[in-house]
């Protein structure tokens, strides 16, 4: 059972932030507690999720992928069909509405792949909030399309060239911006990480994925799935998918971390599989670090998984053995992309392709009457340059 | 009993203000650490805050962040800073305060850190990413080693928090003078003197002002409503330029601050 006592999930989580942020976190916590049980807020959120985002998203039986794998029946939860092309909008919209209720009309956010940045820029345009997004300079290069989309939406994108110039450095800058502009600014954190109450807020806004899946599979199959698979960077799509199933012991939960060039090379982003416990960005969690406690760069072909830590609730689910965590390398993720393109005509995001590859192998070990659900967290249009370059093409 | 508090009170008893410079250990090489600390000591500073570099210094502005990056590039770690400090601990007459993010302490081991730090002459620790609520993770080990855990009080802290933080802070209270990160600034909010008066009503532990203090005038102005100042970015910049005149002027201002 996942506990939320004092912002902890078992021994993970907490509020390891500068004193200047403490009052803001407590305010956020109080404001969130209020809207959680406020029907008018929940109605407003539901209205936008249905009419603006396009929820609910389909739970689609992937017949040809199932046939190809020759094992369990595979369903895809189509978060790629959301407005803006990924699950990130669920949380961005929820938090933007929350910021409005708190009377804060300026938003700061970090982004890795740019999906959370685009989602936040979208929600801010919709709700007339001023928005600034910090993005690692490396990611700005890798995800030029998303940078342009954010700018079109009226958001200011700031490239961060410090440290490894990726997601972790973007989080550092977003935190600094928030500390400096605390009076009128809300930080829309994009993953189920960071200081309490963010991991809980993000999970609650993402649990719509798992809640819908549960309802849909019961309608379609009249029973719960045997296994659920989702990719894990910070871990927002996966915790959103897992959470409604945590109490269902018959449902195996699989999180897939990015093995990059291979765990043994040190060039990976698998915090649970290849890290030790430590503190970064406000939380006690598994973390890629050296013997001196210095945070190490994460490596993944997928910018959205390129983060050296992992959300505290995942750390806890791992420690108590409720969820299992595996890894998929860059090369395998590319196989996942090709597999889904060719069997189902769906171009998955590189992040989601990690889950596809892992699930395809898992399905092979399962019986035909078993059911496996994959969270297809985003679409891959943003990744075509990266995919083309990795496959030796010249489109890039 | 706190060596740090005593050191500050003995300065204010003479009608002066405490002056605590911040240096980034390993900026310019670890072999510079001894001469820098001993020279600051000679100038008559009250205590010296020794920064440990970290890969993700979220509470620091560009000046200290860059100094940290230079130190990291030199191979500076918590371990070799402590080793270097211990090599001249017997020459220290002023207390040292270590400023380090939490993760390097956790990786080093909290008990071992406290014991080794004590042997180096470290009498206080500031951990900018560890608020009071999370301090149990290191406080018992520090207490065993008689090392003060210094709390930061910010402008955004609510009155109840200010009271709690002030009462729990050991050695001195680090009053953050701006919303934001470390670094030089030209202006401060006007109601700062009220803020400081309020902090001091809760305790007899001295209050030092820090973040953004960069000129002799700042030193004098802040000195008028607290026990002294911490100067970081300006010292770091001056040391990088080997500009000791600027540092001497700042220290001198603390000795005339009470006159204002």
UniProtKB/TrEMBL annotation, chain A:
Obligatory cofactor(s): pyridoxal 5'-phosphate
Subunit structure: Tetramer of two alpha and two beta chains.
Keyword presence, RNA-binding: no
Matching InterPro entries: Trp_synth_b_CS (IPR006653), Trp_synth_beta (IPR006654), Trp_synth_beta/beta-like (IPR023026), TrpB-like_PALP (IPR001926), TrpB-like_PALP_sf (IPR036052)
UniProt keywords, alphabetically: Amino-acid biosynthesis, Aromatic amino acid biosynthesis, Lyase, Pyridoxal phosphate, Tryptophan biosynthesis
UniProt KW Electron transport keyword: no
Catalytic reaction annotation: (1S,2R)-1-C-(indol-3-yl)glycerol 3-phosphate + L-serine = D-glyceraldehyde 3-phosphate + L-tryptophan + H2O
UniProt family annotation: Belongs to the TrpB family.
Function: The beta subunit is responsible for the synthesis of L-tryptophan from indole and L-serine.
GO molecular function: tryptophan synthase activity
Organism of origin: Ureibacillus galli
UniProt domain Tryptophan synthase beta chain-like PALP: residue ranges: 54-377
Pathway where this protein functions: Amino-acid biosynthesis; L-tryptophan biosynthesis; L-tryptophan from chorismate: step 5/5
Pfam families: PALP
Gene (UniProt): trpB
Name the record gives this protein: Tryptophan synthase beta chain
Modified residues (N6-(pyridoxal phosphate)lysine): 88
Automatic annotation (TrEMBL), chain B:
Biological pathway: Amino-acid biosynthesis; L-tryptophan biosynthesis; L-tryptophan from chorismate: step 5/5
EC number(s) recorded for this UniProt protein: 4.2.1.20
InterPro entries: Aldolase_TIM, RibuloseP-bd_barrel, Trp_synthase_alpha_AS, Trp_synthase_suA
Keywords: Amino-acid biosynthesis, Aromatic amino acid biosynthesis, Lyase, Tryptophan biosynthesis
Pfam families: Trp_syntA
Enzyme class label: lyase
Catalytic activity: (1S,2R)-1-C-(indol-3-yl)glycerol 3-phosphate + L-serine = D-glyceraldehyde 3-phosphate + L-tryptophan + H2O
Catalytic residues as annotated in Swiss-Prot or TrEMBL: 49 (proton acceptor), 60 (proton acceptor)
Gene Ontology terms, MF aspect: tryptophan synthase activity
Family: Belongs to the TrpA family.
Quaternary structure, from the entry: Tetramer of two alpha and two beta chains.
Record PANTHER family: TRYPTOPHAN SYNTHASE ALPHA CHAIN, CHLOROPLASTIC, TRYPTOPHAN SYNTHASE, ALPHA CHAIN
Role according to the record: The alpha subunit is responsible for the aldol cleavage of indoleglycerol phosphate to indole and glyceraldehyde 3-phosphate.
HAMAP family membership: Trp_synth_alpha
Protein name (Swiss-Prot/TrEMBL): Tryptophan synthase alpha chain
Organism per entry: Ureibacillus galli
